[in-house]
Amino acid sequence: MADRFFPNDMPGYVEEEAAPAPAAELSSSSSLHTLLSLPYPALAARFLHAALQLKQKATDCMPPLPRLHAATLEKQRRAAGDFTLYTGALGTALLLFRAYSVTGHRADLATCAEIVAACDAASALAGEEFVTFICGRAGHAGDEATVARYLNSFKQLLYGKAGYLWTCSFLNKHLGENTIQPTTTLVDNSPNLNFTGHGWIMHVLLDMDLTENDKEHVKGTLRYMIQNRFPSGNYPCTEGDNYDCLVHWCHGAPGVSLTLAKASQMFPEEQFLEAAADAAEVVWNQGLLKRVGICHGISGNGYTFLSLYRLTKKKEYLYRAKALACIMHGGDEPYSLFEGQAGMAYLFLDMINPLESGFPAYEL
């Protein structure tokens, strides 16, 4: 398992200095200790600078937008390639939207709108299969509507009904409550609401207006998950899975910790917050992954600690998020949101004001 992550020999905590180090000491190769000891505003400024550079790189890697509007399906496919939020052009649009929300630069919002419109046109011609936010057309529609205002396995967030419900919540957050009335028929007599990769059904349901009976069903599922975690504290990908090695948002402790932290806000029992903290310990010890992306990389794991920091205001969680943000390595799809450096940029933007952070396309 150790070949999947770097041993975490980072210091348990580094106090911030009262004043920033001299500019000469803050080169791009500054030591981790130097970065972690910076006053937070100084470190946030560095995160912003790095995020905007990565944002520009991700945008520059996009094909020219006119090509995205080519006349035939095959030309659309060649031009857009992957037009999903997960690994394609739509992820760049969401990064631009986040950059706009941090900086107020309307040029980013305008480019975001162009990309979303192009991706929607391309996906319509391609006959997009999934009605969901991360890997389907609901993501295009949700992003497009939001941007316009400013200017069984089928139940997964990545591919299915949970992703559609999350899109409804995303629109209601940005366009106003009750813009769309989502249905919560996902909660039924099926036991298959757990051990789902790529986002986890439970997290989406916690954003819904649930009946008391539905809440008990969700609570019972969460308790079942906690009771069936590995002795290490990590979580299996599927029921009966004995392969304890994945510590990613999409599979394992990081995604579960986010959901348990959210559950602790709905349910007063201490067990959910305690379990979220236990899962975060697994992330700290085994989550220094060899990729940088949101889905199965260091950036995604950083949100484990941002979520707990927003909830508890404990500075140790902010420190751990800082530590992961300060040490990054390589990516699958070099500039995509969920598997590449755009995810790193998104985390950097969220580090500027951690109390307003949120895992992209997952936490509202």
From TrEMBL:
Keywords: Metal-binding, Zinc. CDD domains: euk_LANCL. One of its GO terms (biological process) is carbohydrate metabolic process. GO terms for cellular component: plasma membrane. Zn(2+) binds at C250, C295, H296. It comes from the Eukaryota. SUPFAM superfamilies: LanC-like. InterPro entries: 6hp_glycosidase-like_sf (IPR012341), LANC-like (IPR007822), LanC-like_prot_euk (IPR020464). Coiled coil: none annotated. It holds the Pfam family LANC_like. GO terms for molecular function: metal ion binding. The keyword Ion transport does not apply. PANTHER family: LANC-LIKE PROTEIN, LANC-LIKE PROTEIN 3. Belongs to the LanC-like protein family. This is LanC-like protein GCL2. It comes from Panicum hallii. The lineage of its organism: Eukaryota, Viridiplantae, Streptophyta, Embryophyta, Tracheophyta.
